[in-house]
Automatic annotation (TrEMBL), chain B:
Residues 94-443 form the Solute-binding protein family domain. PANTHER family: PERIPLASMIC BINDING COMPONENT OF ABC TRANSPORTER, PERIPLASMIC OLIGOPEPTIDE-BINDING PROTEIN-RELATED. It is found in: Cell envelope. InterPro entries: Peptide/Ni-bd, SBP_5, SBP_5_dom. It comes from the Bacteria. Its main location: other. It comes from Bifidobacterium amazonense. The keyword Signal applies. Gene3D superfamilies: Dipeptide-binding Protein, Domain 3, Periplasmic binding protein-like II. This is ABC transporter substrate-binding protein. Residues 1-29 form the signal peptide.
UniProtKB/TrEMBL annotation, chain C:
Keywords: Cell membrane, Membrane, Transmembrane, Transmembrane helix, Transport. This is ABC transporter permease. It is found in: Cell membrane. Residues 111-295 form the ABC transmembrane type-1 domain. The chain crosses the membrane at residues 41-68, 115-137, 149-182, 228-253, 273-294. It is a multi-pass membrane protein. Pfam families: BPD_transp_1, OppC_N. Its main location: membrane. The lineage of its organism: Bacteria, Bacillati, Actinomycetota, Actinomycetes, Bifidobacteriales. Belongs to the binding-protein-dependent transport system permease family. InterPro entries: BP-dependent_transpt_permease, MetI-like, MetI-like_sf, OppC_N.
Amino acid sequence: MAADMVAAKPARPKPRKASPGVTAWMRAHHPLAWYIFKRFLISLFLVFGVTLITFILTNLVPANPVNSILGEQEANDPEAVARMEAKLGLDKPLYEQYWLYLVRLVHGDLGESFLTKQPVTDDLKRVFPATLELGGFVFIFTILFGVLLGLYAALHHRHFADQLIRVLSLGGVSIPTFWLGAMCYYFLFYELGLFPGSGRLDSRISPPPTVTGMYTVDSIIAGDWATFGNAVWHLCLPALVLATANLSSLMRFVRSAVLESMNQDYVLAAKAKGLPSHKVVFGYILRGAAVPILNRMGLLFAGLITGSVLTESIFAWNGLGQYAFKATMALDLQGIMGVGIIIGVVYIFVNFIVDIITGFVDQRVRIQ
Amino acid sequence: MNTKRWSFGNVAKIAVSAVAAGAMALSLAACGGAEGSKNAASSGSTDSSSLVVDSDFDLITMDPARSFETATVSILRATYQSALKYVDNDMSKPQPEICTYTISDDNKVVTLTLNGDHYFADGKKVTVDDIVYSYQRVQGIKGNPSFYLDGVTVAKKDDKSLTLTSETPNPAIPYILPSVNLGIVEKSVVEANGGTTDEKDGAEKYLNQHSAGSGPYQFDTVAMDSKVTLKRNDKFAGDKPKYDKIIINNVDSATELTNIKAGTTDIAMDINSDEAAKLTKDEADVSAGPSGSTTFLWFNADPQYGKVVSNTDFVNAVRKAVNYDKYVALYGEGSEQAYGVVPNQFLGALKSSDDNKYDLTEAKALLKKSGYNNEEVQFLYSSDDDTSTQIAQLFQADMKALGVNIKLVGQPTTTRLDTFRSGKFQSGLSTWGADYPDPSDYFVFAPNENIAKRAGWYTTEGAKSSNGWNGSDSADKIESLVEAARNASGEDERAKTWQDLQEAMNQGSPYVPLVVQGANVVSRPGIGAKYDLLNGVDYTVLK
Amino acid sequence: MSENTIAANGGTKTAAADSRNGGVPDKVVRKMTKRRFGVPAALRTPLAIIGLIVLALWVLVIIFAPLLEPHDPLDQLGTRLSAPSAEYWFGTDTLGRDIFSRVIAASRVSIPSSIVLVIFSSVIGSLIGAMAGYFGGWIDEAFMRVTDLVFAFPSTILAMVISAALGPSIQNAIIAVVLVSWPTYARLVRSLVLGLRNSEFVIVGRLLGRSSFASLFKDILPNILPHIFVLMFVDLGDCLLVLSGLSFLGLGATPPMPEWGQMVSEGVTRMTSWWLAFFPGLAIFTVVIAENFVGDAVRDWFDRSYISGNQEGR
């Protein structure tokens, strides 16, 4: 997918009419600011779109939320049903429901999950850090090794190391995550006991006082190193599983981006000038590959936040993915909407940041 | 090209050193982690002050007047006391807890009298007012358990006693009172937090986080999706419980097994019977027994929705074609064949039945009589429940042997319930868990009642107000027996009428009872946890 | 989903016909790639050959599945949960069915459904992308925003919700995944069409009186089809992973027909019977990795001969 984003970027140069006034001046004199502004507007539009999609989606779900919320006895009582419908605003026309939904959203109110009976905002505050912790851990790990190994493979193109990395990475993207998870769980935990089982901490250890909600960070803040060690230890296995496919695919991506960059004229020129090879590699080649790799990182991060459903379900990691899955199975509409929105917003935000960094790094984008 | 502004050379060097540092930190942390957990594990065997429980739960509410989830029950049992209780899974007669009871000869008035002094966690004594308030709240807020006290008037008699008066004879009341849903809450605390005895009640939020009971424990922390910790209620009137702290973790069943084997947990609630059977005595004790849940098949009795399955002969053919032993084996240790809808260890249960017996030849004859002509039969089950999925496939294979073409329709539990409730689906697999161990809880199976409505089973009279369903002969035939069971009084008469009713149901009803599900509690050697039919596990009796 | 360099390059390259050999005379190309028996060199790497053999074996398995199954995959005659043995090579499952037979039978569900999925999402995505790229203007704008949205919305969760709402079945799972995967094709095709629509032969075609429809389908489409085919091939493995993932969550294939992902999920709750999950997962892995080995080689070959003719180094 990442590559498609890249492909979509160099949009067709449009013959624009020179529009007078502020916009033209902005475009001419502050191209970067204009670019950021434009990306910001697009991001805003996307956020709006995500709210619309979640709303439409949850209205298409055939389950009747009222029946699920009300108990057995009350669901048979038409009066109670009508009251609950009124409370949920289900008696109003759709566009009005959507408007009310947006108004609530602006106030940070995502409704109440009927599964947990808690405000969805509270639920998300609890589960999001768990996913962020796992995802962030994997992200750092993946970026470091992915870029280094990918670069190494490209520089040793067609040598043994390249071939080995290629086979490993092809293998990595081919393993079903849920199966890898189950097998790691079975062999590394159940049979060999090398890693702890599911969950974020041993059951005897109480979570550190909540600051960020991420146990590793919070335990550092609290200066509780035993808890920190335990939290990291619990992270290892799910992180390994989640990292496998992501690392493999990032390595391959970096490799091909670097290979492409190696054939650019300025790199060939730098080589011809006789610059030392490390300067060519880091100053020219990697720099040339930076834009696609940055874009890829943004997608990777967003993917880690959204794509951990399977890993979380194997390791009973009480994060966003598990929450989304439970909400989906129970058709907890408010919960599903909340998850959709938070993930959409994270995705859009990360892409916005990546766009800005790209704008700084790559002038070609700015010029457009 | 200017390399000064953005030197990737430096970035890469930093990156390399960061990797190295990260790797070191990781390995250090891993060592620390490993050590930490070893300590935890070893302390598990010596430290008797806290009990670690693994339970695969989805808590929805911790308000005793609303809660209806199995995982909540054992937690509430430890934090709230009820008027009466059962001892050692003996369901034949309730024993005193906070109160003693008497029941009038006409089965209409139950009198509860305070049995000694009991104290809430804040030191206040449990009074008759608290009990009356608790019962009235259950009735008034119309939560799931409100039906326990339907048609009952609760009144304070004096400072020592209260009466529960029913309009019609209600011999089940003493059997209902031990339910945790009828746990006694502290009136002043609940009221201070928005509690009322009508639907405006707003105490649920408070009660989700704080217990307001007189049990040996009280809530310490509650995270409904991950962890509940209980601490001792120092004011508890009875014997001091063995453990100071109980930690209940939300853990999936696979981990429970490894935790039990590793000794990192003391009690595991959800180890399936296949795994439990493989545990050795050194690893764990397994305590299994029949639960109060009956798994049954239902076939829509209304021809417009049930089509061919609405035929009594068809259902009876199925009854004979089901290979019961296989189903019992699948549910594992503790399970028994269900001979009627009432679980075997309850009053009025059928101990055996010639109608529910595997006999393929007779089944085929009955099927022929029913006029079944290879139509596809839609069969509903919970696709997100592993055992239901297996049972559905087992059933499909049995039906194939009979010559019936079953189409499995799996739906996630929530959706499935909606479908089942509509009363328009053809057939399916369902489970009825006892709310209280008394046959009265099984009137839902009688024509025109809740389960019967879902299976489209109405009497001619009942169908008139059913909004589109037809009455059926089998329902009309059985109506007098239902009446007899309702009016019976005294244990013997109640048992007899219920057995008669179930015999009749086994000959002409939309239900085929399959299995009384077994359940187990697995505990580390030395913990000695016993499976408790009503509460799953009763922490208060651990010694 | 895996990255693909074709898409990355596609937008910036001109007509495939023009750059086919990168200006190098045909003879030289033939010499460089050493075509023997008409198989390009890139497809003769050890990995590609292993991949092709494994895929061919799976195709044979699919065709001859009923003959290869030692037992009826639905027959519940074995002892429950027995370990792999001479009688039951991969052991038996919770209902005593032969897992070996079920793994084989499942190939007829899992593999064809991912192929169907790829076909649907490529056709839908390509049509939309072609429209957007060819007509431009507000159609293009609207299309770009919609794909942005689909990308922005978490695809796993979207697919989960859709299949939960429609009710679990393999058909609904396919629909759900198609709904979230078409934009990949749409973006590729859009950028290819953008590159081609102003090239000489298309303009000449228009001048000769071709309708937009004919121009799009007769002039442009044949030139971008190979790109689409390569992406489809590369995508196939991912689709199998996504579909079996949904089945694993209980939102895909429904019993009693075996499906690999669903078989793995049956095993996860029973740790002591590792064979329940191990073999079906291994089946998925072998198919996907073989497919990726071949896909990788196909892409290399394609990049070299169609796109990067002047960059022999890649």
